[in-house]
Amino acid sequence: MTKRKKAIVVSLGISLLLMLAKFTAYFITRSNAILTDAAESIVNVIASSFAFYSVYLSTRPRDENHPYGHGKVEFFSAFVEGTLILIAGIMIIGKSVYSFIYPEPLEQLFTGTLIIAGAGLVNLLTGLFLIRTGRQENSLTLVADGKHLLTDTYTSAALVIGLVLMLLTNLHWLDSVLSVAAGLYIVFSGYKLTRESVGGLMDESDVKLVTAVVGILQDNRADPWIDVHNLRTQQYGPELHIDCHVTLPYYFDLNRVHKEISDIDKLINAKKLRETELFIHADPCLPQCCHYCRMKDCPVRFEPQARDFVWTLENTTRNKKHFENELL
């Protein structure tokens, strides 16, 4: 079993146990705020179950129907999890408003508070473990599940503070107020997660990742790499795909062109940003490239090098060579 699968199995098992603990706390206290936390645990279990399947599917090898692999399912998993969080938050707010108008008597708050505090601590440790593992394995599903558990931890912490206040002041109307506040926070967290997953499904550019790739190319730039443009990235689960155009001296033979492209591939993968597949289109240089070309002793140079371009996020992602960018 892979590290990702082990992590999600741990998450699922813990989510089941904590759900039972929180519902036990609700039945002995009848606290609407505790019910809020327990209801979110149902979402945790459903989300972890779906996350387990998505992690299993994303690790399957490529096939004829999925030439880029199955990694995109992780974005869909995060979307489902975010949507479930949103629904849970809305339901929690509705139940809290109803309970504020039609309150129920509360019992054994101290015992319920201890159970929620213990569950929150376990969620905190599990969430941090999942986020760390997800970042190591480049798994959006694990990171999303970890962030979900951290959200649960924060709501549990706020709930514990509120329960303690109720124990000290006997102001039971705080129960519904706390529940509404927790519901609003849950809705906001669900929106952020859903927004991130939709961006991945729509191949939204990861600015930090593209900037890191451009920085690697700039810092290790070889003289024959005259120009890099139309650089794009796509993420498929833990794998990264990069498309770009590289301008090389037009007099290079096919073997030399292949060597330069292979050097770029090795350079990017050596930095271990994540497992990366590159599709590089080689362009021949034009006379207009001479004034920023670094090639020494070029046999066909039309004019000496007059300037040097620093490759940046802005000028490498345009679908134009650098001398065309100067005309804009």
Topology:
Elements: H1 3-29, H2 32-58, H3 73-101, H4 109-137, H5 140-169, H6 174-201, H7 207-219, E1 227-236, E2 239-248, H8 254-270, E3 276-284, H9 313-316, H10 322-326
Parallel strand pairs: 2-3
Antiparallel strand pairs: 1-2
Helix pairs in contact: 1-2, 1-4, 2-3, 2-5, 2-6, 3-5, 3-6, 4-5, 5-6
Question: How would you portray this structure in words?
Answer:
With 328 residues, this protein is mainly α. The chain has two domains: 199 residues, Up-down Bundle (Alpha-lytic protease prodomain-like), CATH 1.20.1510; 120 residues, 2-Layer Sandwich (Alpha-Beta Plaits), CATH 3.30.70. It is built from ten helices and three strands. Strands 1-2-3 form a three-stranded mixed beta sheet, with helices on one face. Strand 2, helix 8 and strand 3 form a beta-alpha-beta unit. Helix 2 runs antiparallel to helix 3, helix 2 runs parallel beside helix 6 and helix 4 runs antiparallel to helix 5. The protein starts with a helix and ends with a helix. The model has no long low-confidence stretch (mean pLDDT 80).
